[in-house]
Design a protein that fits this description.
By secondary structure, the chain is an alpha/beta fold. The chain has 7 helices and 6 strands. The chain has one domain: Rossmann fold, CATH 3.40.50.
Amino acid sequence: MTKGLSGRDNMRYMSDRLAGKRILITSADTFMGPDITQFFRTEGADVIADESPLLGADDASALIERCGHLDAVVANFEYPAYKAKTVDIEDSEWHAGFDHMVHPLMRIVRSVAPQMIARRSGSIVVTGSSSPLRRMSPQTVAYVTARAAQLAFVRSAGHDLARHNVRLNAIAQNYVANPAYYPPETLANPKFQERLPLEVPAGRIGKPEESGELALFLASESSSFIFGQVVSHDGGWS
């Protein structure tokens, strides 16, 4: 019985579902990176956990070159939700959302796709947000727009790559425990606990391992007929 993996004490893992797979996880120290990294390693993957923000124009291509062969990539990017009404959005914060979440995503996909196209095999999984799938607070316009750009890229680029048997799909999540958006102090807040069942039909916060399972499914051959899709993962919120 495996312990210490985000509440999996009563579940059996170590099934080696990713044995022999070489997988890159970006921003492995934040958002869903820590949990997916640990989960994928538990499942036998050879994980390259990169923690660089990949903000430079050539950072993504240099990283892919250093990695060499990759069977899958988990494109994990985040940026704090910038709170400002439309008329108060500052250019610097508007650009920051795209610089941290959209441009690195495109560059990672652009850099790793050629080797996957050559092999006609490979999967890219984007950990995104379901915030663009329904109306959010008007104070988060800039953040939601950047997240929406991620999902639009996945749909269009995923359609383009499908002809090469390269899978690009996204997890659109919300209300999942993670250090970036739902840390322990937020989850313990009485006001948050009171609002949770009103916001989320499932009536609870999502577990990191549930996102890990979905990422594993999309990264593995189990999803071999899924291309360019955005999978909602938010307890029914969207």
